[in-house]
Q: What sequence folds into this?
């Protein structure tokens, strides 16, 4: 059984055979000669195809963003021009509609390429797509392809809105793409049609098309070669999904208050502006982790302080509540092209997080600090800055000294700047052990547990090693004991502690986290409803007893799961 993680663009569960979808170009296969005798009948065929394609484009406008509507109108105008000229060609040369469309397209292709304009060449792509779709309707390919895609999960690099509407008519059950965004037009369409959709950049499995796969767009996974038990579980989940969907949707916009009256704050982890746009709609009470890495990946030069400032400010304007910005956590599994970092035999224990920031002050640290101190002056305590991969106080002091220096320099230049509220990621056992003393190095006000790294370091297990996956689990008693120690140290030193790692996403972990004393969880936006639902079904008093037992008496994770399962069953909580 193989697991691929992805970003949920449209919720749902699909169990079906997969099929690769590649965008087809119907222009290239049109014969050079196709004479006709009845030109009026051929013109009618073309007009009918035009009417059908315009209808699809107009339908797209109903769900399009405002900026997309102008593009669709432009496409309709191009289509109208191309169809009118193709109609004239049918009459003049007595050729079939398909060939007439191709000849008109080729005429504009030559004109566009001769123009030398990059903008006009971009429109050429749209024109070819329209010509191809017009020919596809003329050839009646929809019926021919229907059986191919019906009941399948589509796998593709990227799918465009007009192609998606065709695939929906074919009866697809779900969709996985390697590219795309959760606020893209296709994602909006998928949600409106109720088609499960996952964006999984790393999904590259070589699979038999006859094998069923599981598209879990509730938890954000694609499961290849599922075993019988997993398949049974997901069949049941698929059957009751609509009920679960309704419950999670209703819970998302409510306060997360336990049955015995304790309020838990549920914030969100995001890594882009487009996710920030959806935060309020999904019930986020703020941003518990803004990953800045999206600004650094896939580029040949680093972002400037102004670029960083503008991006964070945009997110602050979109989101209500606090926004916790993590300083760029680059290195290990997140290399960037412009740094050309040296190979490390063990990158998880190498130059990453705060270590890399301090080594690359001019390129990474200073531009980031300039951006956040300007924003801190403007937005006050709403903006918080979190330092990644802290393990010793010397590194934290050096980071803070640099922060003070940047504020001083900007003020001397006449710019407004302030020191932001400062916090750290708790990802190493060292950070847990020193949490109550870090305030001697810098004025730490908050901390957030990065459970992914903390788990691998506590257990000495590489979380990326599939052969050790049976050991890597946040519910292992040593990890729970480490979290309990972090909670106690944070409480004694007045530090607000939260969890932003994947542990906070897991239904089985939530009762334990609350029982251990956490009152603030940060999860992906798509899981806010589920997280609040679980919290609202729990009692803190019961969760405390469970957590105390897990920390003091239980020696293996199997027993931990057994006790949590009993609690979930008693409270009738969905464990998916």
A:
């Amino acid at each position: 059984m193989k697991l691929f993680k992805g970003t949920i663009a449209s919720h749902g569960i699909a169990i079906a055979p997969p099929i690769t979808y590649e965008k087809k170009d119907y222009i290239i296969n049109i014969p050079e000669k196709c004479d006709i005798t009845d030109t009026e009948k051929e013109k009618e065929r073309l007009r009918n195809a035009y009417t059908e394609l315009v209808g699809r484009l107009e339908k797209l406008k109903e769900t399009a963003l405002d900026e997309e509507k102008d593009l669709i109108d432009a496409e309709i105008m191009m289509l109208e021009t191309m169809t009118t000229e193709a109609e004239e060609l049918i009459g003049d040369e007595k050729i079939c509609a398909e060939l007439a469309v191709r000849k008109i397209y080729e005429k504009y292709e030559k004109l566009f390429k001769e123009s030398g304009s990059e903008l006009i060449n971009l429109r050429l792509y749209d024109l070819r797509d329209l010509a191809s779709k017009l020919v596809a309707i003329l050839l009646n390919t929809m019926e021919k392809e229907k059986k191919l895609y019906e009941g399948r999960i589509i796998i593709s690099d990227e799918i465009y809105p007009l192609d998606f509407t065709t695939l929906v008519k074919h009866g697809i059950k779900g969709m996985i793409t390697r590219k795309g965004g959760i606020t893209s037009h296709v994602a909006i369409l998928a949600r409106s049609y109720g088609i499960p959709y996952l964006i999984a950049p790393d999904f590259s499995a070589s699979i038999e098309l006859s094998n069923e796969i599981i598209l879990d767009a509730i938890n954000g996974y694609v499961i290849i070669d599922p075993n019988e038990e997993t398949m049974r579980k997901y069949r049941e989940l698929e059957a009751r999904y609509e009920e679960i969907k309704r419950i999670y949707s209703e819970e998302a916009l409510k306060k997360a208050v336990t049955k015995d009256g304790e309020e838990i704050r549920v914030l969100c982890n995001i890594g882009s502006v487009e996710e920030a746009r959806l935060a309020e709609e999904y019930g986020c009470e703020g941003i518990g982790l803004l990953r800045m890495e999206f600004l650094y990946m896939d580029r040949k030069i680093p972002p400037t302080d102004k670029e960083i400032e503008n991006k964070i400010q945009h997110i602050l304007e979109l989101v209500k509540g606090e926004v916790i910005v993590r300083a760029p956590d680059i290195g290990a599994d997140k290399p960037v092209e412009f740094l050309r970092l040296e190979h490390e035999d063990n990158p998880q224990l190498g130059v990453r997080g705060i270590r890399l920031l301090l080594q690359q002050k001019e390129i990474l640290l200073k531009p980031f600090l300039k951006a956040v101190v300007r924003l801190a002056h403007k937005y006050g305590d709403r903006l918080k800055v979190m330092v990644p991969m802290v393990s010793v106080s010397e590194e934290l002091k050096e980071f803070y000294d640099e922060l003070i220096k940047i504020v001083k320099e900007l003020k001397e230049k006449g710019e407004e700047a302030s020191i932001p509220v400062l916090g750290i990621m708790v990802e190493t056992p060292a950070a847990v052990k020193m949490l109550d003393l870090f305030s001697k190095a810098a004025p730490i006000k908050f901390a957030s547990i990065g459970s992914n790294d903390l788990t691998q370091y506590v257990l000495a297990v590489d979380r990326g090693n599939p052969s050790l996956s049976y050991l890597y689990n946040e519910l292992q008693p040593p990890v729970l004991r480490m979290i309990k120690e972090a909670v106690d140290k944070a409480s004694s030193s007045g530090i607000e502690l939260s969890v932003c790692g994947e542990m906070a996403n897991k239904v089985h972990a939530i009762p334990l986290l609350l029982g251990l004393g956490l009152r603030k969880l940060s999860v992906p936006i798509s899981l806010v409803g589920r997280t609040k639902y679980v919290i609202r079904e729990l009692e803190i008093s019961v969760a405390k007893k469970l957590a105390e037992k897990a920390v003091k008496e239980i020696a293996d994770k199997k027993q931990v799961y057994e006790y949590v399962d009993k609690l979930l069953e008693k409270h009738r909580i969905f464990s998916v």
